[in-house]
Amino acid sequence: MLYSTTTAEQKRIRFRELLNSGTIAQFPGAFNPLSARLIQEKGFEGVYISGAVVANDLGLPDIGLTTLTEVATRSGQIARMTDLPAIVDADTGFGEPMNVARTVQELENAGLAGLHIEDQFNPKRCGHLDGKNVVDLDTATKRIRAAADARRDPNFLIMARTGIRATDGLNAAKNRAKALVDAGADAIFPEPMRDLAEFQAIRDAVDVPILANMTEFGKSDLFTTDQLQGVGVNMVIYPVTLLRSAMGAAEQVLDTLRSLGSQEVRVSQMLTRARLYELVDYEAYNKFDSGVYNFEIPSLRTATKES
Known about the structure:
This protein has helices spanning 8-19, 33-41, 51-57, 68-79, 97-109, 137-150, 164-168, 170-182, 196-205, 225-230, 241-260, 273-279, 282-288; strands spanning 25-28, 47-49, 86-89, 114-118, 157-162, 187-190, 211-213, 235-238. The protein is an alpha/beta fold. It has one domain (8-239): Phosphoenolpyruvate-binding domains (TIM Barrel, Alpha-Beta Barrel). The strands form two sheets. The chain has a five-stranded parallel β-sheet, sandwiched between helices. A three-stranded parallel β-sheet has the order 1-8-7. The longest helix is centred in the last third of the chain and has 20 residues, at 241-260.
């Protein structure tokens, strides 16, 4: 009922254990708190909170327009709804090194298990778009040092995201990854990797966990977990997959409403009322206070048409 009973500290310990387990962890991207609960129910290891999704949910493009307050608030709402560790895209840290330090502590306070900070200039671009510019090595390492120094829980993960592969090539990406680890990064998020051999090259360059971004319509093929684990990837994110799926379904329903005047033909594709009530755990609220919920929910198996 209400929120997760697993503490943020416990989630961070679990996240560290996952990264050291020798198996790959899947972190689908949640676009709201309820989708985080669904991710947990389906047996995934963690939840990812994409900066693009936070921005798009506000109707904005992913070019660094969101604020620390918006990201901390939304990611905290998502993280508290699940027992799984949740990590968040903290863009460039929302400013200079002192701003980066505050970002880390605000996201610690929000209950996140970790974050990643990238080496782009502002305004930033999606990691799989062309035209990116990255900051110099000194600026990039200062951001990571500030983040590592600011955290109070040693299990809060500081991940460095680098986009230098797109501007300077793979060798530059390997060298920058090494420097970011030396600056205090607990893990590396390289972008954009074009094939499995490039992931292997980053794996060979550093001895910390690495992350793969399996985003649709990007520069990487959508590799399987077996393929990624085979080249030493420790975790994989699917940042916008659920948002794209949900918005695609919503667009189809709206088109149907407009063209037919009714949603009847789409009802069979919708989450039933019974299933929605199960996800939000109405029954637990009933046990706590029967005055909150004192009606019968249709069976998940028998419910078909509902008002």
